[in-house]
Structures are given as structure tokens and as C-alpha cells.
Amino acid sequence: MKIGFIVNDLLNEQLPSSTVQMALTASRMGHEVWLAGVGDFVYNCDELVHAHARSVAHGDFEDQKSYYAAICSEGALRKRITVDDLDILMLRNDPAQDIQSSWAQHAAIVFGRTAMRHGVIVLNDPDGLSKAINKMYFQHFPKEVRVEKVITRTFSEIERFYEKHGRTIILKPLMGSAGRSVFFVQPSDAANLHQMADAIFRDGYAIAEEYMPEARRGDTRLFLMNGVPLQIDGVYCAFRRIPGGEDIRANIHAGARAEPAEVTDAMLRLAEIVRPKLVQDGMFLVGLDIVGEKLLEVNLFSPGGLHHQEIFRGVDFSRRVIEALEKKVLYAKYYRGNFDNVEMNTL
Fold this sequence. Notes:
Elements: E1 2-7, H1 18-28, E2 32-37, E3 41-43, E4 49-55, H2 64-72, E5 77-82, E6 88-91, H3 102-115, E7 121-123, H4 126-131, E8 149-152, H5 155-164, E9 169-173, E10 183-185, H6 193-201, E11 206-210, E12 219-225, E13 228-229, E14 231-232, E15 235-236, E16 238-242, E17 257-260, H7 265-280, E18 285-291, E19 294-299, H8 307-313, H9 317-335, H10 341-346
Parallel strand pairs: 1-2, 1-6, 6-7
Antiparallel strand pairs: 3-4, 4-5, 8-11, 9-10, 9-11, 12-13, 12-16, 12-18, 14-15, 16-17, 18-19
């Protein structure tokens, strides 16, 4: 199997990285693996999609750190590959990280959509991802799974929402990730509310969101693959994210820590409620962030944390993901185009 992984900036990928872990696992399983960034695509006069990508020979890499060092080294194989010749193209870039570079936010979607024309299986589906380019996508899920919120660039709307919810809310950007520009606004912050809102308005729309006290104790990220909870022999791919100190953000890159998670019936119920929409939009690998009986986020572009269960319970979910990709390549071979890319994402 020939597989390509697209990240924001290949030489500046932050470790630990689920993408690098999946690439390493695929390499260990004997597959041809290429990695590239969103700025490395080429659409040539031959009407094919190419990319300036990197790979390394199959080797005995101890962990993702040593594998990534080899990818970034002078000794890595650097080649202008033909993306259309790949079996699988995984779009693992996060557009929110490129908020200052508008060209980069849609690049992987645009080139991935073009590569689909020649039979490349692109995951997650580019058309589905284009609908989810910001957090407004979350509003397409049933009201039962969502916390109450308002999305606006008008301060009076935020102020009204703040008062309605007892002067305790979460304020964050519509386009964002990794906990950047997220404010926990309390009654004592009333005098600074306008300043907080303005900090977000500079980059676009703001979300004022109902605060859930349970979030103080962290949230649970539950992975779905092919539209259903990812699990091996009854062990679910999930972990708890515990905020650090007084910080309410449960983002690992913002200082939170990871702990083992217990997956409850309520979490599985949420996963079942959102499943039809995820299948409809061709979402292969998804991370649900859950607090209590509500969803805080649906992570579609590059959900991270696959490696935590290997650390906690010795279960290798990266291998299970690559095995799922192998099956998709076989399905494509057997049925010769009878299934479109959206269907292939969740078969």
C-alpha cells in the first residue's frame, strides 16, 4: 500500500503526533509511506497532483521521535511524488493553525479533492472537511448533544449571553484549536469582558458558550473510526484530558495532562447520535471531546492522542487504523470504483 500523510508544516510537526505515529506504524507494517506539508503540492501540466514529499527506508526506529528525526534529516528520501498514484491520502493538517495564512487553510482540501478523480482514497473526505472548516459545523448535530452557545461579532450579544448564564461562560474563536484565545469568563471579569471579546474579534467571529462545571475535572476524548467507537477487545480508544493548575483548558498542548478514561454508556450514546452525520460527510477518523452528557468539540482534521492508550494499556490503536486502511484498498480493488470517496471513508 502506498500512503501519504499531509500535515501543516512537515519540518515543524509538534511531537507527540498521532500522524507521525500512524506513519511509523504503516512503515513498520511494510507499506510505502510519504509525508508532506500543505505547501508542498504541485498541480502539473500533466493534469496530475504531485507533492514534494519525504520518506525513509524501513528501519528499526525505536519510537516516533527517532522516526520523525529521520524524516527531517538530510538523509531522508526527498522526491516529487505523484499523489494520484497513492492508494491512500490522509489529510492530517489543521486549518486553524494556519489562520494567518488563508491560502493554507483550504490547500489540502482542494488538492485532495482533485486527487480523488483518479481513484485515490482521501481521508477524511475533502468535501466533508470543507463543511467543517470552523466550529459552525458543530451546530449541525442534534441540539441534545450540544451545550448552549451564541456565535457573533457583536459585543452586546456576548454581554446578553454572559448575563443570561450567571456571568460565567467560555469565550473562544469560531476558528481555532489547541486552546488558543480561550477565556473562562467569571463574574469578577465583567470589567474585562469587552477586552476579551475584542481580542477574538480581531481574527473573526467569537463563540460565547455555556460553562459546564464538570469541565473543571477535564474532558474525555473518544475516538471514532468508520463511524463507530474505536476499540480492540473491549478496550476503547479514549483518554481523559485534565487541565493543569487553574487553567480550564483541557488541551494537551496547552498544559493539560492525559489519564486513562472510562467509557460510559452516556458517551456511547453520544457517539451513536452523531454517527449518521459523520457517516454522511465521510469522516473516517474523529475525536469526540465529551464533558458529562454533552459534546464540547468534534475533532475532524487531525485529532491527536492515539498513542495514549498504548502507554496506558499497551493497546496499539495506530496499527488498527492502518489495518482499516488496508481493507479500504482491498475494497477499492475488488469493487473497482463502485463506491465513492464518502462511502469508502466509513466502510
